[in-house]
Amino acid sequence: MAQLPPGVRFIVLFTSDQWCRAFIFVLTFLLYASFHLSRKPISIVKGELHKHCALPNEVELSSYKEYAIPIQPAKKFSNESQCGWEPFDKNNYKQLLGALDYSFLCAYAVGMYLSGIIGERLPIRYYLTAGMLASGLFTAMFGLGYFCNMHNLWFYMIAQDPAMQCLLPDRENCTVPLNHNFAVTGEGGTRMSAVSFIGALRIPGVIEFSLCLLFAKLVSYTFLFWLPLYITNVEHLDAKRAGDLSTLFDVGGIFGGILAGMISDRLEKRASTCGMMLLLAAPALYMFSAISKMGLEATIVMLLISGALVNGPYALITTAVSADLGTHKSLKGNARALSTVTAIIDGTGSVGAALGPLLAGLISPSGWNNVFYMLMVADAFALLFLLRLIRKELQCKMDQTLFKEH
Predict the structure, then answer these.
(1) Looking at the 3D structure of the chain, how many domains does it have?
(2) pTM
């Protein structure tokens, strides 16, 4: 009998259920990555919306290349000036950019709260599909603003409010029917209804982790929306190079999230792991504000370290912690609380995400150091809300040790 080709043997090596789960995992990863990709360009173009106002003699010199060969000026739109694009070419551009971020993240926070309630009661596949199509449509409106020569602040604020990202965890497998009229049973085999908003708040740890994420996400999203502009001002780089350099903060966040998950799984202490990283994040932010002015190499190192410490707790709370709390033993086997718990935690965190960029826009005109002081205070508050849970985790560990000794 002829031997099966290697490709066929690889396919039959896994069951159809395993292939289905792998497909869902890859698809969810690509979708979530696409959502994050749609956010980053907004922060990068800030350096183009407002530019350094060139003096008249600088404008004349910039019109010539080496050997004094004249360059034909590029097509100029009516809303473009030497200081950037209307309405961001004025001195209050930082406040306007902060308001733009605030409108987007406020809509995001409201959408997160609603998504948990809706996601428990509607077919999640249809809900995700409609949400992603709407998000893509309104994200494309930002580009249309350039081609249609539309540079009104309200246009972009309105475009951001329907473009809120409300990605929910797709925890269903391929065998679940697409209609939502199926029974969800608990430990006793009885039908379980979706948990209420108040009922989800009563789960131990939900309030503490939600408030912690509020301040942790405040720090993370301030970096997301303002880091390219900060690098442009401090390192005097163009928008493209500043955007490329700012991605190192996200690279550090990838390793920080993985490290936080590994440590918390090994120690079985979610709150203590988050607290440890938050404790280190505050001095790291201070070092970043001081060292980033010393040169490009120092900035690269501190971007990686800061990204790991800032995004580590944020990633852990929105994934493993939300899953733990959504399947807490107090729910008695009711798995329909996961979306609601995730929405409460991430929605509360999104309130901080809305406040962070807004505060950065209001504070940055007085100096970037003040922005970093604000971020350090936010990290301290995030740690403060976890102290009770950290104390409880450490107390349980001590009790287990004493029990084994006796």
Answers:
(1) 1
(2) 0.66
